[in-house]
Design a protein that fits this description.
Blueprint: H1 12-21, H2 29-41, H3 44-60, E1 62-63, E2 70-71, H4 77-80, E3 85-92, H5 95-102, E4 109-113, H6 132-139, E5 145-148, H7 154-167, E6 173-176, H8 192-200, E7 203-204, H9 205-211
Helix pairs in contact: 1-2
Zinc finger (C4-type): 64-79
Keywords: DNA damage, DNA recombination, DNA repair, Metal-binding, Zinc, Zinc-finger
InterPro entries: DNA_Rcmb_RecR, Rcmb_RecR, Rcmb_RecR_Znf, TOPRIM_dom, TOPRIM_RecR
Length: 212
């Protein structure tokens, strides 16, 4: 039977800080300890700046009332930018995907952040995602194209198809990013060149659906 050494701490304060730090994704106890000890060596002011910025972020961060992206104000910078093409909406799973696509510099439309994917196993249904507001945008008549940019997983494809059925009656272009992204890959981990080409070489959603 494999046994793991219990990490001993000489200070309850250090132990508590390490336990809290290790709750972050990808951070184990040893990495958390290194980070905590590093912070301990820094000037108190530096640690204060870090803690203040985290508290301010948690308390003051807003979500755009139009696209649900993170924002410092009611409308995010992308939606407020008049040079963007507001008739083209790129549908993404979460905020990290917005950042990934923006880093390519290839998309000049706006976004709609769903806040997840339909996943019955995880208890996530359509009503728990930002789908209703998307359908309302499409029905407003101010949208010319919707681009599906969800990860090519079973949950992503299920979500795409559900939304497609909601807006199929609209006279707009419904497309999906080209499959330069490997099946099963998450959008945020794709390199910028591949992701940029997938946006530019998008294909009609119905065509992609029939080929699957």
């Amino acid at each position: 039977m494999t046994t793991f050494a219990v990490m001993e701490f000489s200070s309850k304060l250090i132990e508590k800080a390490v336990n809290e730090m290790s709750q972050l994704p990808g951070i184990g106890k040893r990495t958390a300890l290194r980070l905590v000890l590093h912070l301990l060596k820094q000037p108190k002011e530096q640690t204060g700046f870090l803690s203040q910025s985290l508290v301010a972020m948690r308390e003051d961060i807003k979500y755009c009332i139009s696209c649900h992206n993170i924002s410092d104000s009611a409308i995010c910078e992308i939606c407020a930018n008049k040079s963007r093409n507001h008739q083209i909406i790129c549908i993404v799973e979460d905020i990290r995907d917005v950042m990934a696509i923006e880093n390519t510099g290839q998309f000049r439309g706006i976004y709609h952040v769903l806040g997840g994917k339909i996943s019955p196993i995880d208890g996530i249904g359509p009503s728990q995602l930002n789908i209703t507001t998307l359908v309302e945008k499409v029905k407003s008549g101010n949208v010319s194209e919707v681009i599906f940019a969800l990860s090519s997983t079973m949950e992503g494809d299920t979500t795409n198809f559900y939304i497609y059925k909601q807006i199929i009656e609209s006279t707009i272009i419904i497309s999906t990013i080209a499959r330069g992204i490997s099946v099963g890959d998450e959008l945020e981990f794709a390199d910028e060149v591949t992701l940029g080409r997938s946006i530019l070489q998008r294909v009609p959603f119905e065509k992609g659906f029939k080929n699957n």
